[in-house]
Amino acid sequence: MRALILLAHPEPRSFNAHLAAQAAEQLRHDALQVDVVDLYAEGFDPLEAARHHSSRLQPGRFDAQREQRHGAEQGRLPADVQRHLQLLQAADLVILQFPLWWFAPPAILKGWLDRVLVYGPMYNSRLRHEHGAMRGKRALLSVTTGSSARACAVDGREGDTRLLLWPLMYSLRYVGFDVLEPHLVHGVRSGLAAERVQAHDEALAAATHYYRERLAQWPRWPTVPFNDSGDFEDGVVLRAEATAYSPFIRHRNSG
């Protein structure tokens, strides 16, 4: 078994980097081979652009999807994209480790999706959802927030963190992953008053221990439910009898 841990945090001494390292240590302890990719440390360029494609299908106009598919067919994908694709294809478990910034993942992680989930080999009109290229593989979002768990709850001032993560989870499902319920660590702060530092550090140590305990049982980690293709009439609209699993895809009369 093999795992890929993708870290998206600019500070190598951050708690996110610590969680990525601890996850790698735990999974290796459990006999998995582990690859760790630090997007900031390797200087990953998150901007999909014509300059990445050396052999263009349309030199006069840049169409990202067409150029990605052309590059894949010609064996001329950018070297960094090709390396990340190979790591994805080899992995049984993929962990995305990142902080929540402005109610979303850092831009570098969105750019990773834009460039690495390549049109053609990773998805097309027939190769997606439960039939996706990554079917049989599992993906986990391990996420930190600065606000408390109460503030990030469904009735909290910061909004429901799990709901904020749904578009990213759906993107992973789109290419076929079984998506695990996200692992959230709230209240990760810096610049605290001296009298609060010890309690904060103890809470993060306990959170790290709990994360390792959960990872030791990752094959039994609960998954996020999604609608399969058969739940949609003409492949487009959710059938009246189908279960709605998220406010993002719901019945029209559900409010």
From TrEMBL:
Pfam families: Flavodoxin_2. Residues 52-73 are annotated as: Disordered. Residues 1-205 form the Flavodoxin-like fold domain. Signal peptide: none annotated. Keywords: Oxidoreductase. It comes from the Bacteria. The keyword Oxidoreductase applies. Its EC number is 1.-.-.-. Residues 63-73 have a biased composition (Basic and acidic residues). InterPro entries: Flavodoxin_fold (IPR003680), Flavoprotein-like_sf (IPR029039), NAD(P)H_dehydrogenase_qn (IPR051545). GO terms for molecular function: oxidoreductase activity. It is an enzyme of class 1 (oxidoreductase). Belongs to the NAD(P)H dehydrogenase (quinone) family. PANTHER family: NAD P H OXIDOREDUCTASE-RELATED, NAD(P)H DEHYDROGENASE [QUINONE] 1 ISOFORM 1. This is NAD(P)H-dependent oxidoreductase. It comes from Stenotrophomonas muris. The lineage of its organism: Bacteria, Pseudomonadati, Pseudomonadota, Gammaproteobacteria, Lysobacterales.
